[in-house]
Specification:
5 helices, globular, alpha/beta, five-stranded parallel sheet
């Protein structure tokens, strides 16, 4: 048996739900790898997580970048070993307006972050979890997929 603390990677950990999840996991005894695009907010989350006893690692990550996500997995593994859990929390609200007035670029960006980003992160962390025969991936979503809001077509999709 080892005294190793569980390790959780949290994307979108700099603010909002991701920040609260990371701090909550730290308080429950996990070490946390904090991923996001804004290093200032990641550092603030790291401070709060460290204050409740967690070891932390901040990795500037854009989840739509295969290179960034691969680097996240490598840095997390080098620092803590294989992750026990991934919380895929990064997301964007996307554009608001009638579907016929939305531009393709805004539609694509919403899907890139909210869907492809989850895929890239899961793909990066699953092999080690499968090899060990243990691990969890939690995807944070929204009820908007089941109860769409007016003008939020890309987000709801």
């Amino acid at each position: 048996m080892t005294d190793r603390r569980p390790v959780t990677v949290v994307t979108g950990a700099g603010r909002g739900i991701g920040r609260e999840i990371a701090i909550g996991l730290a308080g429950a005894g996990a070490d946390v790898v904090l991923a996001g695009r804004d290093t200032v907010t990641l550092d603030a989350t790291a401070e709060a997580a460290a204050a409740v006893g967690a070891a932390t690692l901040c990795v500037r990550t854009d989840v739509i970048s295969e290179e960034d996500v691969a680097a996240l997995a490598i840095e997390a593994t080098e620092r803590f070993g294989a992750a026990d859990a991934l919380v895929a929390n990064s997301g964007v609200g996307g554009p608001t307006g009638p579907l016929w007035e939305l531009d393709r670029e805004a539609w694509d960006e919403t899907f890139a972050v909210n869907v492809t980003g989850v895929f890239l992160c899961a793909r990066a962390f699953l092999p080690a979890m499968l090899e060990r025969g243990t691990g969890s991936i939690v995807v944070i979503g929204s009820m908007t997929g089941k109860r769409p809001l007016w003008g939020r077509t890309p987000y709801a999709a």
